[in-house]
Amino acid sequence: MSEKKQKFYHAKWKYYKIKGNKIERTRKFCPRCGEGIFMAEHENRYSCGKCGYTEYK
Q1: Cα(24)–Cα(3) distance, rounded to whole angstroms?
Q2: Distant-in-sequence contacts of 16-22, Cβ < 8 A, 24+ apart
Q3: Angle 1-6-29 from CA coordinates, rounded to 5°
Q4: 49 closest CA partner among 13, 57, 36
C-alpha cells in the first residue's frame, strides 16, 4: 500500500492582525523580493528565506 504524503503549508494568516476595519501586517516585507514575501524574525536579525537578504536589528 502507498502511504499518503503529508502536505505542508505556510499559515500566512498569522502574519496579519485585524483592528477595526483595517488589516495590520505583523512582519516586514523583503525589500529585494517586494511585497508578499515576508521576512523571518530572529533574535538579532530579519532574514528573507527566498533571496537570503538579511537586516540586523
Answers
A1: 40
A2: none
A3: 160
A4: 36
Question: Which grid cell is 21?
Answer: 476595519
The Cα angle at residue 55 between residues 24 and 37, in degrees rounded to 5 = 45
* Nine cell digits for residue 24: 495590520
Residue 45 host element (H or E): strand 45-47
Are the beta carbons of 28 and 38 closer than 8 angstroms? yes
Q: What is the pLDDT of residues 25-36, one digit of tens each?
A: 888 999 999 988
Q: How many residues does the chain have?
A: 57
Per-residue confidence band for 4, with pLDDT thresholds at 50, 70 and 90: confident
